Amino acid sequence: MTQGTLSRIAIAVTAAAYLASHVAVAGPAVLAFGLLSQFLFILPGVLIVRAMAPASGWLAPLTIGAFVGQALGSLVLTLLWITGAHGVWLLLAAPAIVSLFAIPARSLAGRWTLPATALDDAVALTVLLVIVPIVVGLPFAHLGEISANGQDYRMYFTSDYAWRRAVVSELAKGDVLPINPYFAGDAMHYYWMPHVFSAVQYRFAAAWATLDELLTIQSIWVDAMFVAFLYGMTRAFRVRPWAAAAGVTFAVFASSFEGLYAWWDFARHGVPLAAVKNLNIDAVSRWYFQGIPIDGLQRVLFYQPHHALGYVIGLIGLMAIALRTRAQDAAAFAIAGICLGLSVAISSFAGLMVTSGAALYESISLLRAFNIRRALVHAVAAGVPLGLAVALVFALKYVDNNGEVVEIAVNRLAFHDFWWVTLLSCGPVLIVGAIAIAINWRHPHGVGVFGALIAASTFFYFFVNVRDHQDVYVGWRVGHFLFMSAAVLIGVLFNDLPLLSANVRRAVLVVALLMFAAGVPTAAIDIYNTQDTTNHNEMPAGRATLRLQPDDLQIFDWIKHNTDPKATFQVDPVARNPEHWAYLPAFGERRMAAGIPISMIPLAKYERASAEIRLLYDEQPLLAYERAVRAKVNYVIVGPHERNAHPGVEGRFASMPDRLPLVFKNGTIAIYEVR
Description:
Elements: H1 3-23, H2 28-52, H3 59-63, H4 65-81, H5 90-99, H6 102-105, H7 121-128, H8 131-141, E1 145-147, E2 150-154, H9 159-171, H10 196-205, H11 211-235, H12 241-253, H13 258-268, H14 284-287, H15 298-303, H16 305-322, H17 330-346, H18 348-369, H19 372-395, E3 406-408, H20 412-415, H21 418-440, H22 448-463, E4 464-466, H23 473-495, H24 502-531, E5 538-539, E6 542-543, E7 545-548, H25 550-562, E8 568-570, H26 573-576, H27 583-588, E9 591-592, H28 604-613, H29 621-630, E10 635-638, H30 640-645, H31 649-654, E11 662-665, E12 670-673
Parallel strand pairs: 8-9, 8-10
Antiparallel strand pairs: 1-2, 2-7, 3-4, 5-6, 10-12, 11-12
Helix pairs in contact: 1-7, 1-8, 2-4, 2-5, 2-11, 4-5, 4-16, 4-17, 7-12, 8-11, 8-24, 9-10, 11-12, 11-16, 11-23, 12-23, 16-17, 16-18, 17-18, 17-19, 18-22, 21-23, 21-24, 22-23
């Protein structure tokens, strides 16, 4: 079979897989709109990298440039957004502005050693991209699945998705700065920049496109870009195409022993192996051993395109430092600073981590050279855009000034059963990665920059904590950086196998295959569980699948067509916590006077406000009315949760029809207007 025939078959299979994945999540009109706007958004980045690396062929522009376009486009779109420009024309204006940077980018040609396109790149990358439909095809097809019984969302690591819905629907309302939908009178303290693109789409297309459609289309695109970037990053460190593809495949599918451990544990206790369907499989190290959970890259693909964007643009900044061709280069460090600054603005904590890794790497290099002038030049060049990014973060009010968000302290959870938890969470990658380091240290590929990133991440793992996330937030970011770095290290190992003796080569391959086989069950179980909306069993944070009942969907439809998008609604956030924490902002697309959001910190003020607002369900009618007025609540909802927690509440509200009139009622839910 010729190279051309193989390439055509690979392209046909991959195209069919992506077509099926897209058709399963959206209708034709939404697909056309979503795909075209996403393509236009990334195209300028491809042109910019093409101008910077004209001799590299298509590989670097496609695999690296796509995220450059997405990140710069998000920045420009946000700056336009906060000026009050909210029309759909922004989806053309932002890319047009970003594309202008391709002109000065030509002067940067030759400053980096980017990978040149090889003959096998087209087939290797095309085959590798099938990872995305394999991982997210079924989970996205079943996302928000509607049946006669209601609408189902598998609440299996979908907190990111529920929060993403809430953020996008709030941004689409057009307030500058966006309002906190969980705390009246407050700004949204969250890194919302990467969601402005979806907000512009939804603001324009809400009448004929669902939010689920728009978000899943974008996720598929970003996922494909993410896998392509891992491939391009690995190729940039002198790794051949198929070795790079193998390294990325290993890092995505075989990061953890947790699936294998769960099966073994069930077998020795006589538990049916099918019981893994009820496990948060990539958090076994947390639930079984009280350690910090480390999630695999498949979970980035599921529901975290915003983190993927923050990770990648930060890693591009890291590469801008590591792959520069000149020892002293202010321009290269300015570009690195821009990329790292964008990472901070897009996914703040991850950006802080990757910036620390970059600083550590360059500091070690400077110590070796002991060049003070170079240190000052690079510090200023990178520091200016980083400083502007930090200023932007504060200007957009990402940080809640009412309390500490990050604390520097020993995280005792990180030390608990550290060796066993670490082996369980990332054993396959650690073992094969250690072999790669042991074998290839004499054949350097310039991968020391990933050592600096891992060292910085390790410090964060043990000594930096994000409050109100049960001491586990850092583990998710550390794990993802570890596995992305491992894709390169393992790719280097496979690349250099021909340099080894036959016996060593066979031993390495056997170990790698065994580790891959031992790691795959975790990803396989995770993929199955994420798409299984038939599982309604009880989990620690509610049922495995969140079902919005037909009555819920009916009131959401009534709310959408009969109330102001900026109206404030209220449920009892305490009675509905944690299963329905996103009930109104994410699915009803309306604000609350007070709620308990699991993604907002510090959490104490939300808990206090929620404890106060729920009193209106128990107070005498006039006092309840006055409390609702003071909280600027427009509508109060009484559903099964409120009825069970507050007996007689409907009778109390009904006694004040002039001030709390019943404006809607179905079989299980009543809505009262506060006049």
